[in-house]
């Protein structure tokens, strides 16, 4: 698969690749904050029905270009988090902006003053669309999991750096009714 990097769009990095290759992800999948679309397109390549969504017009255009360039039939939507999505999904995947910053110069990587504000919003909202989600969490902005009593969390993979750890976190909704 070829991916074009686009100005003003988060470039695929280790955190993007950490979200790829999860064997159980099949069926109807939404990638929130898709950026270039690399993660969602990797699942479309394996047969999943994929929807890509991003708040950035530049990211939406980039993801559409990458889908076309690879001959993939995916839905690409411009929207804030889950805005405009219809129906239920088997999986939601999200590589959130997770670094803390009170004065971001680039909102593709900062998740708010504490770094986890965008991720917490995702965790509050995804259960209305899916029972399962995978997201990236940084040791610099850990989620207070006890605040989400309706969710079960498990770390599936971890990457360690000198200054930070990145976790691929699986989240399942307790008592989800399809």
Descriptive overview:
The protein is of the alpha/beta class. It is built from 4 helices and 9 strands; from the N terminus they run αβαβαββββαβββ. The protein has helices at 14-18, 38-44, 57-69, 117-125; strands at 28-32, 49-54, 75-78, 91-94, 99-100, 110-112, 132-138, 151-160, 165-173. The strands form 2 sheets. A 7-stranded mixed beta sheet has the order 3-2-1-4-7-9-8, with helices on both faces. A two-stranded parallel ribbon has the order 5-6. Strand 1, helix 2 (38-44) and strand 2 (49-54) form a beta-alpha-beta unit. The longest helix is centred in the middle third of the chain and has 13 residues, at 57-69.
How are the secondary structure elements laid out?
Blueprint: H1 14-18, E1 28-32, H2 38-44, E2 49-54, H3 57-69, E3 75-78, E4 91-94, E5 99-100, E6 110-112, H4 117-125, E7 132-138, E8 151-160, E9 165-173
Parallel strand pairs: 1-2, 1-4, 2-3, 4-7, 5-6
Antiparallel strand pairs: 7-9, 8-9
Structural class: alpha/beta
Largest sheet: 7 strands, mixed
Q: What is the average per-residue confidence, as pLDDT, rounded to a whole number? A: 90
Low-confidence stretches: none
CATH homologous superfamily classification: Vaccinia Virus protein VP39
Radius of gyration: 15 Å
What's the CATH topology name?
Answer: Rossmann fold
Number of domains: 1
* CATH class designation: Alpha Beta
**What oligomeric state best describes the polypeptide chains here?**
single chain
Total count of helical runs of at least 4 residues: 4
Shape by Cα distribution: globular
